[in-house]
Structure formats: structure tokens, C-alpha cells
UniProtKB/TrEMBL annotation:
Cofactor dependency: pyridoxal 5'-phosphate
Domain of life: Bacteria
The entry's keywords: Aminotransferase, Pyridoxal phosphate, Transferase
Originating species: Flavobacterium flavipigmentatum
One Pfam family of this chain: Aminotran_3
A GO term, aspect molecular function: pyridoxal phosphate binding
Protein name: Aminotransferase class III-fold pyridoxal phosphate-dependent enzyme
Alphabetized PANTHER family for the sequence: GLUTAMATE-1-SEMIALDEHYDE 2,1-AMINOMUTASE (PTHR43713), GLUTAMATE-1-SEMIALDEHYDE 2,1-AMINOMUTASE 1, CHLOROPLASTIC-RELATED (PTHR43713:SF3)
Length: 413
């Protein structure tokens, strides 16, 4: 038995990082755009906790304000004016002219589960139609393809063992191809049993905007509740994410990850006329009213507002993508891989030539080689930037990209 891999903490593959020598990297500290491991090695962090750390690690303004906020206590008997202020600020900043009802959660998986329950109360139907990753709860995960890969590489349907939510009268359906014809045939067969259509906003990066708009319009013909999941994008692309400002496109909006700068907070916003369904769905638990994460979110919001942050993040992301793509040009491998600036640069995604996706070990090799050279960057999943990434020097980045991609090309050829 291999005892080295055993740990008391269950760590899924997505939270384990190995270099090309198969050495697991154990991180112990973060500062600005960097994380440090237990061997005192420094890495540029473009994972950022899978998105939350929007200001950068250990931001001193954030830290000081959070310390002050501890004096109010971190969990009071019920919701507080801080919770109210937070919602009002989001609405004011987004300038949307509708009112919403909100449910505070810790994770987006919970919020999406809540949205499914609300949708069932509203429609009397139990089926779910998904497009994109929306969390780990059974209905979100059972029978999922690899949602973060381009549509043509999403063949594998996985994760049914031990999960529910796939029985005949509670169908969970995937719109995998992002082709309207597939959606129409799903709706024609099952539309009368589908309560909600959940779309991860990241899926907008694979298609023209009007494809998603058409999809939403078709779903509306079947009285299906539209849930836009802005977990990866809220507080990053804009306060309401990529599409949240377009209030005609959603009934329920999910925010998460970056809104708390690492504190666990997620929000379900539903249109005002969902008040009764949302109340009656009885979603929420002990920690829903917890205050510390809301203080963190208020502080994050203030720092973002005063630093022109959304534009700055795009600038930073674009400059990283530019460095990467200049290196692939130098190495004459633009056909094989390129970095995409998603939603103006707020997210980054390396996309590969089709044949590379057929051999996932080639994808993961690149991630390992990045680590050898001091960079934490995801493959097969978008990566993230923080405001502190403006400290990075183009030459350093290009050097890391150059060494990593050169080794990668040597190994895969
Ligand atoms: C679009 C989307 N929805 C939901 C989730 C689940 O969020 P959480 O991990 O907070 O439960 C994720 C997580 O990555 C996500 O990207």
C-alpha cells in the first residue's frame, strides 16, 4: 500500500499540485500574487483558491479592516444591517432597475441546490437542464461531462456512483454541444418536466451571445426557470458577473467565489416575484446568517470600487495572455495552444489543438512544468488573476512561459 498518498484530509485531485518530478507541492503562505511552499519556493498564483482571492493574498487594507470588523462579533442571532447594506450596494453598483430577494449561503453548490428547489416550487416540475459545472451536489454532478473543456471534447459522462437525481421522473439533462438543435430536441422530449435551466456563465466563452439568448428564449417557451450561475464571474467581471446586468436573461442569479475575497460566501438573488417560492422553499441553515464573510464581502466591494478594479483586472489578464501568446509565437506553436482572455481578460483559459485533448496527460504535463518554473496555472479549467497581479513583470512571466512551453514541446513530440 502506498502510505505516502494517505492523509487524514480527503484531497480530491483538483486540490493537489505536482511538479514534473511528481513531487506534491505543499503551500504554506500567500502574499500578493505569490504563494510559497514548505521548501520556501515561490510561485505566481493564478489559481487563487479556484477564483475567490480577487484582491491578492493577504492584502493589508483588507486584513486591517477585517480585524476591525471582528469587534462586532462574527455571528449574531439573525441577519444584520450589514447583510442588507451588502445587497443594496450590489444593486446600486450594478444599476439594475429591478428588485430582488436574496438568500445568503456559504457555497455556490448550496445556492444552486436552493435555486433548483425554488424552481420546482414555482413550476411543479422536477427535471433539471444544465449547461456547465454548477457544483458538487448530486443533481449538479450526477452524469456530468467535463464541462470546462470545449464542447467537442465533452464526451465522457461520469460521476453517477453514489449519486441521485437521475431517475426517470426527475431527469437531469445536459446541454453539452451548445448547439441549438440539440437543445430543441431535449426540450421537445422533456421540456414539460424541466423546472430550471442552469447555465454556468463561463459557457458564454464558447459561443456567440445570441446562441445563449436563443437557448434561454426556447426554455422560456416551456415555462422553465432560468438560473444564471455567475459563481466564477461575479465580483470579477462585474459585480453581477458576465451577464447578470441583463435582467431579462435570468430569473435566479447565483454569485459566489470572488465576492468575499476568500471568505466563504455565496448569494442567491431571485426576482422579486419569487419571494413566496423562495421563502417557502426553506433553504438556508445555521451559517447562512454568519456575519464575518459578509464583512469581508463589504470590504472587498469597497476596495474594488475605489480601485477601478474591474477594468484593472481585464488589463492584467490581457497582459498575461499577451505574454503567453508571444511566447507560443516565438516557439512556433500557435497551432497547438493559445491563451484566451475570457470576458475581456478577467479569466484566462489555455485552449489546445483538438488532438491534445485526446491525451489528458499532455494537458496535465504542462501544469506540472509551470510548477517547475514557479507558476500555478490550471489546464482544462480557466485560471484567475487578482488585483495584486499588477506587480508581475512581463519579462518574468515570459521567461516562465518560455521555459515551460519549450520543455512541454520537447516532451510531447
Ligand atoms: C459555475 C459554478 N457553479 C457552482 C460552483 C460550486 O461552487 P462551490 O464550490 O462554492 O460550492 C462552482 C465551483 O467552481 C462553479 O464554477
Amino acid at each position: 500500500m502506498n502510505t505516502i498518498d494517505k492523509s487524514r484530509i480527503i484531497k480530491r485531485r483538483v486540490v493537489r499540485y505536482f511538479n514534473s518530478q511528481n513531487e506534491e507541492i505543499i503551500f504554506i503562505k500567500g502574499n500578493g500574487p505569490f504563494v510559497f511552499d514548505n521548501q520556501k519556493r515561490k510561485y505566481i498564483d493564478c489559481v487563487l483558491g479556484y477564483g475567490p482571492v480577487i484582491l491578492g493574498h493577504s492584502n493589508s487594507i483588507f486584513n486591517n479592516k477585517v480585524s476591525e470588523s471582528l469587534n462586532t462579533g462574527i455571528h449574531l442571532p439573525s441577519f444584520t444591517p450589514y447583510h442588507e447594506n451588502y445587497i443594496s450596494n450590489i444593486l446600486n453598483e450594478s444599476k439594475i432597475d429591478i428588485d430582488v430577494v436574496s438568500v445568503f449561503m456559504k457555497t455556490s453548490s448550496e445556492a444552486v441546490t436552493g435555486a433548483i428547489r425554488i424552481s420546482t416550487l414555482k413550476t411543479g416540475k422536477k427535471g433539471v437542464l444544465r449547461c456547465g459545472f454548477s457544483g458538487w451536489h448530486d443533481v449538479q454532478h450526477a452524469n456530468s461531462p467535463s464541462w470546462h473543456l470545449p464542447p467537442q471534447h465533452r464526451k465522457a459522462i461520469r460521476n453517477t456512483e453514489g449519486l441521485r437525481g437521475v431517475s426517470n421522473d426527475e431527469k437531469v439533462l445536459n446541454w453539452v454541444s451548445l448547439e441549438i438543435e440539440e437543445l430543441k430536441s431535449i426540450l421537445n422530449l422533456h421540456g414539460d418536466k424541466i423546472a430550471c435551466f442552469i447555465i454556468d456563465a463561463f459557457q458564454w466563452s464558447f459561443v456567440d451571445k445570441d446562441v445563449m439568448e436563443k437557448a434561454i428564449a426556447y426554455c422560456r417557451e416551456f415555462d422553465i426557470v432560468i438560473v444564471i450561475d455567475e459563481t466564477k464571474t461575479a465580483g470579477r467581471v462585474s459585480p453581477l458577473g458576465h451577464i447578470g446586468n441583463e435582467v431579462n436573461l435570468w430569473d435566479i442569479l447565483i454569485l459566489g467565489k470572488a465576492i468575499g475575497n476568500g471568505a466563504p460566501l455565496s448569494l442567491l438573488l431571485a426576482k422579486e416575484d419569487y419571494y413566496d417560492y423562495t421563502l417557502n422553499s426553506q433553504i438556508g441553515g445555521t451559517h447562512s446568517k454568519e456575519l464575518l464573510s459578509v464583512q469581508c464581502a463589504l470590504i472587498t466591494q469597497e476596495i474594488m470600487q475605489t480601485s477601478n478594479a474591474y477594468a484593472e483586472l481585464k488589463k492584467i489578464g490581457n497582459s498575461i495572455a499577451k505574454s503567453f501568446n508571444s511566447v507560443t509565437e516565438k516557439l512556433n506553436c500557435t497551432e497547438l495552444l493559445s491563451m484566451h482572455s475570457i470576458f475581456g481578460g478577467s479569466l484566462l483559459d489555455i485552449r489546445f489543438k483538438d488532438q491534445i485533448y485526446n491525451d489528458p496527460s499532455k494537458l496535465f504535463l504542462l501544469q506540472r512544468l509551470f510548477l517547475d518554473n514557479g507558476l500555478l496555472f490550471l489546464v482544462g479549467h480557466p485560471s484567475f488573476v487578482s488585483l495584486s497581479h499588477n506587480q508581475l513583470k512581463t519579462n518574468d512571466l515570459e521567461d516562465i512561459f518560455y521555459k515551460s512551453i519549450l520543455s512541454w514541446l520537447n516532451e510531447i513530440n
